[in-house]
Amino acid sequence: xxxxVEIMPKHRILIVDDxxxxxxxxxxxxxxAGFNVLEAANAQQAHASIIDNQPDLVxxxxxxxxxxxxxxxxxxxxxxxxxxxxxxxxxxKAEEDSKIAGLDAGADDYIPKPFSPRELxxxxxxxxxxxGREALKEPITIGELIFDPLGHRVSIAGESINLGPxxxxxxxxxxxxxxxxxxxxxxxxxxxxxxxYLDERTVDVHIRRLRKAISVAGHExxxxxxxxxxxxxxxQMSNA
Amino acid sequence: xxxxVEIMPKHRILIVDDxxxxxxxxxxxxxxAGFNVLEAANAQQAHASIIDNQPDLVxxxxxxxxxxxxxxxxxxxxxxxxxxxxxxxxxxKAEEDSKIAGLDAGADDYIPKPFSPRELxxxxxxxxxxxGREALKEPITIGELIFDPLGHRVSIAGESINLGPxxxxxxxxxxxxxxxxxxxxxxxxxxxxxxxYLDERTVDVHIRRLRKAISVAGHExxxxxxxxxxxxxxxQMSNA
DNA sequence: TTTGCGCTGTCATATTTATGTCATGTTGGG
DNA sequence: CCCAACATGACATAAATATGACAGCGCAAA
Lengths: 240, 240
Prior knowledge:
Chain A is of the alpha/beta class and 240 residues long. Helix content of chain A is 40%, strand content 20%. Chain A contains eight helices and twelve strands. A five-stranded parallel beta sheet of chain A has the order 2-1-3-4-5, with helices on both faces. In chain A, α1 crosses α5 and α6 (165-176) packs across α8 (201-214). Chain A is elongated. The model of chain A is unreliable at 1-7 (pLDDT under 50). Chain A binds chain B through residues 70, 74, 97-98, 101, 104-105, 179-181, 226-230, 232, 234, 236, 238, 240, and chain B through 96-97, 100, 103-104, 150-153, 159-160, 164-165. Chain B binds a DNA duplex (30 and 30 nucleotides) through residues 164-167, 198-199, 201-202, 204-209, 211-212, 225, 227-228.
């Protein structure tokens, strides 16, 4: 058997609420429950933080000055890159309407105020468990290449492939964003995380390492160079 | 200097409202803002006008006798041909319900009555801008040729075509400006960018490279030479 | 604590690809 | 039939990317 003693990395939770008091309350409760807490006071901050920090879950207040929670929710769900981040709406309105509209727009759960910290934590965990299962569910197969998120393993034609952490994330990113060109800057943002300052050429090097790793058979040209634009992962071989 | 006097074609806006007074008010405001205005007094007229005139945007009253705005909205969004036309709902109901239902059904924005002409114009422009941006990401298909901006890929009959960055931009320019002649100077400006000094003959060379690249089958004469004037991209083959 | 090893990011250098210009061949209209 | 306009292939150069090497770092085993 394998070493399953892996430490679960702390989940990052972003709290979006215009009232500092509520943010503090939530923050304390979530922190005590072992989460990593981020905060934003409005939709703009929230959006920036989501791009930068890629939180695992967003707690989103329904009513906010300026862009409302619902609008932000829709915007997030419209963008492919943020669409899969689970959202829990918080609302003081006890009406069914809000609940339905929120869920329709893609919220994963809905917590009416007032709520107890216990209930909050329980719902958060429930949503994380659910989406966790879904996100990690099926391995991604492409030709002979199998990417198994559960086992954190990549194999080609049965042979297990050795990838460094960065190459693993890079491959995961590509597999979940196929047939589309990404600039080096974008790749740095999505694979390395928002606020790193790195030479863009670093991407080239990791691309090369990834290519080398998966080039066991003839599986090289999945990762394609698009001159002047960036890189693209494509299942459809570009040759005849 | 060059002839940069390109005329922005007026956007066509369809107003759908059963009250003539409101139609007039909207019409005047939109006309003053430089839009081309169409009108319809009920859902049937509206539907016919949308099919016939392909407006760039529809202003749709929520409450109308007979088929309501919401029903028309749903119908339009169901039909592939009209699904992409942006719709702004107008409503007297200030309730969240309407807003949510409208947005859920696919409306692009929602303006509660009463509203100022200024707000109307601003929202219309905002929606048109957003839709315009999104349109840039849509693949362009012309015969067997597919131009996919997101994948940064051009293919003919399924086969991927190899283009240099400049040829790619040149093709993109032509695809978004079809059926019109552009001088070499104009093409230099649009494709190379304003401040380059290059021999105009350079355009010829790139035109040739583009032609060669897309001439896999018989797809050559999309790019047509107009003696003494420049070049034109035309989908309708000019043979025979 | 020390040692060793795998990972990373950065360079300098090699390799590939794209670009603009030129010389020369073709074409079309008057 | 002639001339101006356009097409084409070749080429030197510039630009972008690939590659191999390397040193610092963190972590885990000894």
